[in-house]
Amino acid sequence: MEPQQIAALISITGDESRVLTQPMVVEQLSRDFYWYSPVLRRQLDGKVADAVVQPLGATEIQSLLRYCHAQNIPVTARGAGTGNYGQAVPLHGGVVLDLSRMDQIEEIQPDGVAVCQPGVRLGVLESEARKKGWELRCYPSTVVKSSLGGFLGGGSGGIGSVANGNLRDFQTVRALQVVTMEPEPRVILHEGEAVHEILHAWGTNGVITRIWLALAPAVEWSQCMIAFSDFHAAYDFSERIATGPEWTKRLVTVFEWPISSFFTPVKQYAPEGKALIFFLIASEQLVAFESAARATGGQVTYSGTYLGLRSRPLLSDYTWNHTTLWAMKADDAYTYLQCGFDPDTVRDQLRQLKEKFGDEILFHMEFWKNGTGRVIPGAIPVVYFKSEERLNEMIDFCRAIGVFVANPHVNNVEGGGRYRPDNVQLLAKQRYDPKNLLNPGKMVTFQPEGQASRAPNL
Ligand code: FAD
Question: What mean pLDDT is predicted for residues 396-420?
Answer without folding.
Answer: 91
